[in-house]
Amino acid sequence: MFADMWRERVRWHTITDPRVQDLPEGGHFRVMVGKLPVRVLRLHGQLHALLDQCPHQGRSFEGGWCDEGYLVCPWHRFHFDPATGHNRTASTANVPVYRVEEGPARVRIGMPRNTFRLFGIDLW
Predict the structure, then answer these.
(1) Rounded distance between C-alpha atoms, residue 44 and residue 116, angstroms
(2) What does the pLDDT read at residue 2?
(3) 47-58, pLDDT tens digit by residue?
(4) Who has the most CB within 10 Å: 1, 39, 77, 111?
(5) pLDDT at 118
(6) How many CA atoms lie within 13 Å of 62's alpha carbon, on the beta-carbon side?
(7) Is residue 34 part of a domain?
């Protein structure tokens, strides 16, 4: 009963940065979603969003590049799959990824949030 009361929800954030509309294949940039740094990139024609923090030492992916479908950390050359966040060699932890909805007029990033549901009402 109590397990059904905890729900994982998604809170959508609209990205207003104009760079997202013209982002070329393999291009990426950092955007703040609330207080969280997020790296937005385009690979295989699709937008992806992941935490802009390498799990190895916590540094930003700024200065990194895309190689064979992976985002490469510029500091130690770890490769991360932008769709799953998995490290190619499993030599470090994975990077959290976020859902992306790309429409003709806007781009939204879905950030997970947990909520407590009581009598059909989300309390937070």
Answers:
(1) 37
(2) 45
(3) 999 999 999 889
(4) 39
(5) 67
(6) 7
(7) yes
The 3-class SS string of 47-87 reads: EEEEECCCCCCCCCCCCCEEECCEEECCCCCCEECCCCCCE
Over residues 54-75, the pLDDT tens digits come to: 998 899 999 999 999 999 999 9
CATH number for position 93:
2.102.10.10
d(CA 87, CA 90): 5
Q: Is the dihedral of CA 67, 79, 15, 103 positive or negative?
A: positive
| The residue type at 100 | V
Q: Which two tokens stand for residue 22?
A: 């013209």
Give the structural domain span for 94. Answer: 18-110
Are 81 and 88 in contact by the 8 Å Cβ rule? The answer is yes
- Number of structural domains (the chain) is 1
pLDDT, the chain, mean: 87
